[in-house]
Amino acid sequence: MWIATANLKAMMVEQDGGFVPIVDVMGRLAKRHVALRLLHADLPSRPFRVVYADANVDMHSRLSR
User: Fold this and answer.
1) How many Å apart are CA 5 and CA 59, to the nearest integer?
2) Domain ranges in the chain?
3) Interatomic CA distance for residues 39 and 65, integer angstroms
4) SS3 60
């Protein structure tokens, strides 16, 4: 899955009647061996970097920085 955006932010998406960080969704996709590519024009927002840094370690093995 390719995602192209000017700004990469700590976005929340609706799931099961609540909201979860998009990083969690990407982590679950990565665990299912879905190839993820993020193309962004600027440095990711500080909140995104914090959420990404705190994400599951297994996700980091599947997503390159």
Assistant:
1) 21
2) 2-62
3) 11
4) helix
Please report, as a single letter, which amino acid is at residue 52: Y
Coil/strand/helix, residue 28: helix
Do the Cβ atoms of 8 and 48 come closer than 8 Å? Answer: yes
Model confidence pLDDT, tens digit, residues 2-60:
989 888 888 899 999 999 988 888 888 888 989 888 888 888 889 888 888 877 645 55
Q: How many helices (H) and strands (E) does the chain have?
A: 3, 4
- Can you name the residues that pair with 37 across neighbouring β-strands? 2
Angle of the 22-31 helix axis to the 46-53 helix axis, nearest 10: 40
